[in-house]
Structures are given as C-alpha cells and as structure tokens.
Specification:
Chain A is mainly alpha-helical. Chain B has a single domain, classed as FAD/NAD(P)-binding domain (3-Layer(bba) Sandwich). In chain B, strands 1, 2, 6, 7, 8, 9 and 17 form a seven-stranded mixed sheet that branches. A five-stranded mixed sheet of chain B has the order 4-3-16-15-10, with helices on one face. Chain B has a five-stranded antiparallel sheet with strand order 5-12-13-14-11, covered by helices on one side. Helices cover about 25% and strands about 20% of the residues of chain B. The chains are: A mainly alpha, B alpha/beta. The interface between A and B is large, with 57 and 45 residues. The structure holds flavin-adenine dinucleotide. Flavin-adenine dinucleotide binds next to helix 1, strand 2, strand 7, helix 9 and helix 12 of chain B.
Chain lengths: ~140, ~525
C-alpha cells in the first residue's frame, strides 16, 4: 500500500518528536511501524501538517524543555479555527494508533469499577490541564 | 433520435421515487453518478479494527485524516475512502455574514445520490408540521397515498409507541432495531416517569428505512457499524436499491455517467444536452417531460445556468441541527455493544409549538480519534474516559423548523459556480428545558456542550424553487412545473417551500411521486 514503506531520509527531529509525543500520549514507546507511518504522513500531507512559525516554535519548545504536550494541547484549541499544529500532531498519532490494530490506550472493555475509574481519569486530566496551563504560561506558549 | 415520454435526471431518492411510477412509460433516466471507487473489505467495524488492516481504516490516501487541519473540511460520514464518491458534484462555497468562506460543500454525483450515506430516518410530515413551517400549498392528505406506497416499498422499522402519532401513521412497521443498554435505560426511565408526572416529553423508537428482518426478498441489516466506512450494506434502504431493481427489470432506458448540461423547451418537447462523461461527448435527448431530481444544489444551478442568470439570488434553506451529548452516569461502564445502529430513539417536546424532532444517537461506528477534538480534555485522558463513558452516553440531534430567510440565498457567480450566503440561523431555544427533562430521566448535560454544525452541514437542502399556488419567477406550480414551463418539473427538495423540524427526504420522495402521478393523470385526460 502507498502509505507504508520506510523513509530513510526523514529528519531526525521528526523522529525525536514522534517518540516524545507518543510517549506523552500513550505512556509507551512508539512502535516502529507507527513511527514510519508518522514520518510518511509528514512526507505525504505536507500542507495539512505544516505549521506557522509560531506553532513550530511551540512544538519545539515543548520537546526541548520536556514539557507536557498532552496537558498543554487543550489550551491551544480555538473553536471554529484550524487545529493548532500540536493538536494535529497528537491527532495524527491517535489516528495512526487507532487504525493500526491492537491500539494503545483504546479498549472497548469498560473497567469493572467504571465510576471510580472515571473519577480518577477526570482528576488526572484536571491535574494535566493545570500543569499544562502553568507550563504554557511560564514559557509563553498561549 | 428517440423522443421519450419522460426524461428523469438524477438517481437519488427523488429521481427513484418518480422512476418507480414512470417505468414502462417510455422513460429514460440520465444520471451523472459514479459508483464507489474503493471497497471496505470487512463485514463489521469490529472485524476491521481487530484485523490491524491499517489501510482499510485509514484509507489508501490518508482519508481518515481529512479533518486533521481544518475541522470542517469533510463531513465525518463522508470521510472514508469508500464514501468519497458521494459528494463529488459541483463545489459550493458557503459564506456566513462576512466574505470569509465558512465551508465548502458539494452536490452529489453518485448513483443513488446522497442517500448512499444517509441515516435512513424516513419520517412523515403531519398537518401540524406543515402549519408550523408555513407556506405549504399542499395538505398532508395530498401526500398520504405516496407516503404509504413508498413506506411499503422501502420497509420501515419503528414501533407503535408514544412517538407514533408525531412521526406519522405507518402500517406494517418492521420491528425496531435493538437498543444499546443506555437507550434501554432511558426508555425504561421514561416509561416509569410517565406513570407519575412526566408531561413534557414524548420518547419512542425512530422511523428508519432499515430492514430488521428479511423483507420482500431483501436481506436484513447486520448491525455491522460500518456506516462511516462504506455504503450499500444490505438492509439499509438507499435509492441505489431501487435503481438496481429498476435496471434489472429493464423497463426504461438508462444513461449512466451522463450529465445534463442544459435544456431547451418548445411546444412539443424538451431537448436536453447531455454529456457522456466516459467518452466526453455531448448528445441530445428529447422527451415530452423533463423531471429534474439532481438534488437542490444541482437543480437550482441548472435552472439558473440554463437562463444565464448569474447574480440572481434564490432562497436557500438548510437545516443545521443542534447536537448535545447526554450522559447517563448510572450506565457508565456498560459493555459497548459490537453491533448496533447509530439512531436509537426519537423524542419531541410535548405540546411544544416548535415541534422539534430529537434523534438520540449512540456513539458507535466512528473512530474514537474523530471525537477527540470535541472533548475538552487531554488526548490520553479522553481516550481512557471514552471506554467507560460511551456505554452511558447518547447524543441528541435536534431538528428545528427552518423557513426561508431573506438573507439566506444561493446564487451563481460569473464562472457558473454556486455560492451560498447563510448568515441567518438561530440557536435552539428549548435546550434548557430539554436538558431539565433529561435530568429527570437520569441524563446530564450542560448547555455549553451543545454545538451546531455550520450552515451547509445540515444536508437538508431545500426551498430554492418553492412550490406556490400562483408561482412567480423561479418558483414552481404545485404540479411541479417551473413557473413558466409546460414540460420541466422540479421533483427534488428545491420545490419544498419550508422545512418542518424533521428529516425531509421521505416527504420529498412522496411529493416527487405525487408529481409523477399527476403528470400521468393529465396525460390520460389529454
Ligand atoms: C450524512 C447525511 C445523512 C442524511 N440523513 C438523512 C436522513 O436520515 N433522513 C433524511 O430524510 N435525509 C437524510 N439526508 C439527506 C438526504 O440524503 C437527501 O435529502 C437526499 O439524498 C436528496 O435526494 P435528491 O434525490 O434530491 O438528491 P441527491 O441525493 O443529491 O441525488 C442527486 C442525483 O442527481 C444526479 N445528478 C446531479 N446533477 C446531475 C446532472 N446535471 N445530470 C445528471 N445527473 C445529475 C446525481 O448523480 C445523483 O444521483 C442525509 C444526508 C447526508 C449527507
């Protein structure tokens, strides 16, 4: 198929970015096939995945300073506007993960104690959002 | 060259509603429509997900990522590779109240038209609906026999319950599709609340063109949750089913992949210039009557183009629904069914003058990644939440009456392309009341969770050449003829003068059938 196939010439920066963002989103190392697809998507979908200079700078800062991309990303969303570059990159990873079979973090089997689990997830999400907001303010990202 | 009696243009629901009546009558059908360019090779979404077949879900050309930059680039239901052929018609730009494009849409060039992707909610209008919407020169009794005939042809699932009268009387309903646990819970809560004091809402099963059992030799639907990935599943009615049947019967002449470009009318007949899309050659087809069922956008464009009317504005109605998620905490953690149908329940507010139809959807059948941008949480938390939350969540899709507004118009630009201006649309006013009722039934939500797609995304396009008793230019007679024509008829929703708060396609089809029947009756009396 067109989408698969290795991209030996892909920039190291993009590989580093994929490894960093995937780990932050799914708390796992990125599988090789997913990494290759991430690079391939950037090669094929240049227009959709190109960012304005300020967006690129935000992604770069997050990676360089080892910030929390997943906590920061919701603060970059603007209703009715194009998705921010960071949102696009996280969405891309999520789609690649979901479409690739045996996806990390996606399960159709609910937890046995669903409500407490949901409460914990919401608390964790609130903490991540708070951390993201603080980091975003500290580094001037929003 | 042959002179046909009838030339039908379009194989969407409106075209097929008349073709059923006019077959064996010297009829020719011209359709620009294409067939799917790709197949979805799995019998169900669960099977596809388990297979790890990346390209089946993603698409050969990254189709699943169509909205990754612009959240409104492609409707989620037409994103997948095997559904892209449906909206491949003339591009249309939609503007709000500024010169900025809100959205780009397109009419359909597909065998079977837009019905290849519809939700198959096929409901009747009632007299109360028409009164509320206004401007209808017909009463429902004029449509009733055609509703009944179409329902019998299609096979309609539903139930004789509290929503029966609101959705219109249907004989021989097929059993409704099975409910997911959350919908079962809501219905049970409604039934017990009703016994005490729930006076403000009606809830019941939806009306669907969905075969829950074998019907007239057609296989039932397999509840495979592939609606966002492919079309033509057995058991979901689309106009393509009727098209295939008619082709098999061979009672009329078909010109597939032929596009009507223009027409001229004289005392005796209409001469249509038609492009053979495969050979890129023009041909002329003559007929006594030309019936345009190209979908509101294409039909309005053809009529304007045919008269060289760039710059003239025509009314345009869409029907953008309000969407709001309703959470049922008691049902969080319910097992997510691997087989279901998105539309689960239908509701309305009792004695509400607005007569809104509320369809309740189960969030199955979609990729979860598609729902992330709508969830105001970090990506990882949202995915973790979904697995426990979806079992206890329904999405209410609320249709309201839509009437022509002066500012909402369609026009041709100098290049012959269509533009829509749609600055005038309102927020749903009964939301607070509705959420209060759901709270009594164990469902929670907030007004700020509600969203409304942009105009153009309602896909209930109508009203550009409205039917009137005494039509003025760019309106139609109640027998479907254009105001100044003896032989050109508008059979699609362009002729509907306003849209009651319900899905309109069944009414559009009934009206098309009524027009065809009237032409036949007049022919007999000549
Ligand atoms: C996602 C989605 C969900 C929907 N769900 C529902 C629902 O649940 N219930 C409901 O009532 N409605 C629903 N609709 C709306 C419904 O699909 C349309 O109202 C209906 O398909 C319109 O039928 P039509 O025959 O007027 O036109 P179309 O379906 O647009 O068909 C037009 C036909 O004309 C042909 N054509 C166009 N131009 C030319 C030309 N120049 N020459 C030759 N042929 C031409 C096309 O190939 C096509 O076959 C939905 C729509 C969408 C997109």
């Amino acid at each position: 198929m067109k989408i698969d196939g290795s991209l030996p010439g892909a920039p190291d920066e993009l590989r580093k970015e994929a490894v960093f963002l995937y780990k932050a989103a799914f708390n796992k190392s990125i599988p090789d096939t997913l990494l290759e697809r991430y690079l391939r998507a950037h090669a094929d979908l240049t227009k959709q995945l190109e960012g304005a200079p300020f967006e690129l700078q935000i992604v770069k800062t997050i990676i360089e300073k080892n910030l929390d991309p997943v906590g920061i990303e919701p603060w970059l969303r603007k209703k009715g506007r194009q998705h921010h570059l960071l949102t696009r990159k996280l969405l891309l990873l999520s789609f690649l993960n979901e479409c690739g079979g045996n996806p990390a973090g996606i399960s159709r089997s609910p937890d046995r104690f669903a409500l407490p689990c949901m409460a914990l997830t919401v608390c964790a999400a609130a903490l991540a959002l708070l951390r993201g907001r603080i980091q975003a303010a500290r580094y001037g990202l929003v | 060259m042959d002179l046909f009696n009838f030339l039908i243009v379009g194989s969407g629901p409106s075209g097929m509603a008349v073709a059923r009546i006019l077959e064996k009558r010297g009829t020719c059908l011209v359709d620009a429509g294409d067939l799917p360019q790709a197949q979805f090779p799995y019998a169900s979404l669960t099977e596809a997900a388990a297979s790890g077949d990346f390209s089946a879900l993603m698409g050969e050309h990254w189709e699943a990522l169509a909205n990754i930059r612009d959240p409104h680039a492609v409707h989620t239901k037409m994103k997948s590779q095997a559904l892209r052929f449906i909206a491949s018609g003339e591009p249309v730009e939609v503007y709000g109240d500024s010169e900025t494009i809100l959205l780009k849409v397109a009419g359909s060039y597909a065998a079977g038209g837009m019905s290849n992707t519809w939700g198959a909610q096929l409901v009747r209008y009632t007299d109360a609906d028409l009164d509320k919407a206004g401007d209808w020169p017909l009463e429902v009794s004029a449509l009733s026999p055609y509703y009944a005939d179409l329902e019998e042809h299609i096979g309609i699932a539903g139930a004789v319950d509290d929503m029966y009268d609101f959705l219109g009387e249907v004989h021989g309903l097929l059993s409704p599709p099975p409910l997911v646990p959350c919908a079962q819970y809501l219905l049970a809560r409604y039934e017990s609340a009703k016994k005490t004091a729930l006076e403000s809402m009606l809830l019941g099963r939806p009306r669907l063109g969905l075969l829950t059992t074998k019907y007239k030799g057609y296989e039932p639907y397999k509840f495979c949750e592939t609606e966002f990935f492919t079309s033509g599943q057995s058991g979901i009615y689309t106009a393509k089913r009727t098209l295939d049947d008619l082709r098999q019967k061979n009672n009329m002449v078909f010109y597939e992949r032929h596009k009507l470009l223009s027409y001229t009318e004289n005392e005796d007949h209409v001469a249509a210039t038609v492009l053979d899309c495969k050979r890129n050659e023009k041909i002329t087809i003559k007929a006594h009557h030309l019936l345009l069922g190209c979908g509101t956008l294409h039909t309005a464009r053809l009529v304007l183009l045919n008269r060289g009317e760039t710059g003239r504005t025509l009314p345009f109605i869409d029907h953008p629904p309000t969407l709001v998620p309703i959470f049922f905490p008691r049902m969080f953690g319910s097992i997510l069914p691997s087989r279901s149908f998105p539309v689960q329940l239908a509701a309305t507010l009792k004695e509400s003058p607005t007569r809104e139809l509320i369809s309740l959807y189960y969030p199955g059948a979609v990729l979860w990644s598609d729902l992330l941008p709508e969830t105001p949480l970090p990506v990882s938390s949202a995915l973790r939440l979904f697995k426990n939350m979806f079992g206890g969540m329904l999405v209410a899709q609320i249709w309201e009456t839509s009437t022509p507004q002066k500012a909402n118009v369609l026009e041709l630009d100098d290049s012959g392309a269509l533009r829509i201006r749609y600055p005038d649309y309102n927020k749903y006013t009964n939301l607070k009341k509705l959420l209060k009722i759901f709270r009594r039934l164990g469902g929670w939500s907030l007004q700020r969770f509600a969203s409304m797609p942009m105009p153009g995304r309602g896909f209930h396009y109508a009203g550009s050449l409205p039917m009137k008793d005494a039509p003025e230019p760019y309106q139609t007679h109640t027998d479907g003829r254009l105001w100044d024509s003896r032989r050109v008829y508008i059979i699609d929703a362009a002729a509907l003068p306003s849209l009651p708060a319900k899905n309109h396609s069944l009414t559009m089809m009934a009206n098309a059938a009524r027009i065809a029947d009237r032409i036949l009756q007049c022919e007999c009396s000549y």
